[in-house]
Amino acid sequence: MNQDEWWREAVLYQIYPRSFADSDGDGVGDLSGITDRLDYLAALGADAIWLSPFYPSPLADFGYDVSDFVAVDPAFGTLDDFDELLRQAHARGIRVIVDLIMNHTSVEHPWFAESRSSLTNPKRDWYIWASPGAGGGPPNNWLSAFERCGPAWSHDEATGQCYLHSFTPGQPDLNWRNPEVRAAMRKVWHFWLDRGVDGFRVDVAHRLMKDAELRDNIPELAHARRHVTHPLGRQRHLDLPETLDVLRDLRRTLDAYPGTFALGEVPISDDRRLAEYFGGDGMHTAFHIAFWEQPWRAAAFRETVDRLAGLARPGALPTYALATHDISRTVTRYGGGARPRVAATMMLTLRGIPCVYYGEEIGMADAPPPVEQRLDVDGRDGTRVPMQWDETGLGFTRGTPWLPPGDDRREANVARQMADPGSLLGLYRRLISLRHASAALRRGDQRSLETGEDVFAYVRSCPGERLLIALNFASRATSVDLAGLPGLPGDGRLELSTDADRRTGTPVDLRPLTLAADEGVIVRIGDHP
Ligand code: NOJ
């Protein structure tokens, strides 16, 4: 492998800094807390960590409303703490990628303070301003992504105009048609790249450009808060072709820092469009959004994985996550027991870049706080609760945690699962170490097999190695006929089963292959036929 393309074979780990580890006892996780836990991440096998925002923010959208792009919020520490985290991570061979929020700033960002101060301020055009519509309402029919925020426009008393905000009113959208905005954001890229970060996760990369004339969305699309497709036309406030130019510009900058990469968050429901965003001359990879939206059905996962793989550019790799700070956790969506084990086996064996959200490896469930303690505008607190290092909660903080910890922490905690190789954490560690050791898993081809409704099965192969992965999504034992697989031997050797009692190395009969209820297996089936 070309070392600059390390990310192609990496296992990523997402950290939500408020909730990972609190080193100073104020109840909020911080950068030094993350540094203290790097050995845990190294032992898990994380090749890179993605840090959700740690920049100064008034928290209208919990860090995704940034008031200074080139500083650390005091709640998380200092720039020196960041440098130390980077140094210590690199010393362990762990790369660090940071969140790049380019679509909007906070209302408290000095750029916006200037912009809103007068119609003639030199930064007026850095944001998207328009006169109110008929009757003093919003200038057009665009909606904020968040239901609770209503229209995507807020009226500003100072100048009598409205500003655009695709998210909360605390997050005014930047005007990427203005070259000064591009130049200012380029400085932000260089700031972090010069500090030594290994790349960016690009927040809502598909939203950067808006219709230059701010035309209404067509009535059929007027209700849509997120990306949707419609035969009559496209949305005018997101996924504009010009967006890709900005991402190409970012790519040119990254290319000057060998070994860096961009991972896009592109929540687009149309895989054909999503495929345009990565693997070419723009971002290197993007999340496979539909992956975490699937119901618990083998056929649904097979179709969604194969569809994007069929549309993506040759060699392009999507990034697979089961949960994020926006998306409910695996245990909450699919149930506990064996399913999270099957899901982990899938994510960590697919052709793509796996990204583990903190706490997924111990099977944390969402823990929505009582109504009076809810903080997030879009109801996402439950998926952001403190990392469960131990049963007491003291592993996260010696103070009062900013969100109440989950009730499941007696079982779902690191200390307990570390001591049990059969735990979910034990399985994650084995899966990641197998991925690291296997060229077929790291960089092999992938071919799905026709195995019906209950089983998602695929072969990962490269010269010299061939692995069969078979995942039973049904809660009953199932046999699958693999006769269509060319050169299939009569049996293989078990590499790993989600059932911790089945021993590695035991022969596995393949004609047919029988899986227990909710079981996933990785079977070594020899070289290419
Ligand atoms: C996507 C982020 O993941 C989410 O948390 C945030 O609310 C929006 N972008 C706006 O930045």
UniProtKB/TrEMBL annotation:
Pfam families: Alpha-amylase. One of its GO terms (molecular function) is hydrolase activity. It comes from the Bacteria. InterPro entries: GH, GH13_cat_dom, Glyco_hydro_b, O16G_dom_2. SMART domains: Aamy. Signal peptide: none annotated. Keywords: Hydrolase. Residues 14-398 form the Glycosyl hydrolase family 13 catalytic domain. Belongs to the glycosyl hydrolase 13 family. PANTHER family: ALPHA-AMYLASE FAMILY MEMBER, NEUTRAL AND BASIC AMINO ACID TRANSPORT PROTEIN RBAT. This is Alpha-amylase family glycosyl hydrolase. It comes from Sphaerisporangium dianthi.
